[in-house]
Amino acid sequence: MIDTAAPLLTTPEKAELYRNALDMLNRSGVPYMVGGTYAFQYYAGIARNTKDFDIFVRERDVERVLDVLRRAGFKTEITFTHWLAKAHHADKFIDVIFSSGNAVAEVDDEWFAHAVDEEVLGAPVKLCPPEEMIWSKALIMERERYDGADVAHMFRHCSGLLNWERLVRRFGPHWRVMLSHMILFGFIYPGERSLIPSSVMRDLLNRLLAELEVPTRDSKVCQGTLLSRAQYLVDIDEWRYEDARVQPRGAMTEQQVQEWTAAIDK
How far apart are CA 33 and CA 112, in angstroms? Predict the structure, then answer.
């Protein structure tokens, strides 16, 4: 549970503006969820100050949400067509997220089906489900940002809340990434390894063992770009690997990849 006696996690001025935006979104009826710092506090028990506010929506609802935020006094923009819009009011920002930077963790109906009813800044909201938060965070391994500690803290704090079968299904073909975080959890918390269900660990380890008996494919593809948009560019640009983010293998167009790459140093 969110500790209502805890600090606002932002300034009172920003909290008032965000609360007003939440009230307007609630009155509009457009579906959204709160993620970011507030959801992380709920699931990991860690409070940390935030400069912005994260809401998650289906792609089809982005324009409706931005319209509400404009009426709340924000200026808005579609920052990246494959995953992110922004609303800003002076030094106050709301990220409107409808996928992930690698276009893997698209916000779909299942996010809303498993969202958690809570209260944030005095407004009734739905929090992003823990499974989807882990799924999206597990795939962030940038040089300047690695969310593995967040994943470990969520495993530790809300293991019993998780639908592990659904979490494995969410990772789909990227199950090796989930397994890597589970293995690291046992290293980070050697006395709490049992928080990871042994049946889940065995399932993924059996998949790994089964792959050892299968010859590797001839295709030359790099999936590292799903983890970091910068650190595997050499594989794509110089070593001529296929980029796993690009259609039809991934969900991004070549233009979206170029735009996302151009923003690395911004």
Answer: 8
Q: pTM higher than 0.90, yes or no?
A: yes
Phi, psi of 88 (to 5 degrees): -135, 150
Look at residues 141, 139, 146, 136 and name the one whose alpha carbon lies nearest to residue 231: 141
Per the omega criterion (within 30 degrees of 0), is the bond before 248 cis? yes
Is residue 209 within 8 Å of 241, Cβ to Cβ? no
As a whole number, the mean pLDDT across the chain is: 94
Length of the chain: 266
Distance CA 99, CA 43 (A): 20
How many C-beta atoms lie closer than 10 Å to residue 127's C-beta? 24
CA 224, CA 96: separation in Å to the nearest integer?
Answer: 26
Q: Which two tokens stand for residue 6?
A: 């805890």
| pLDDT at residue 10 in the model | 80
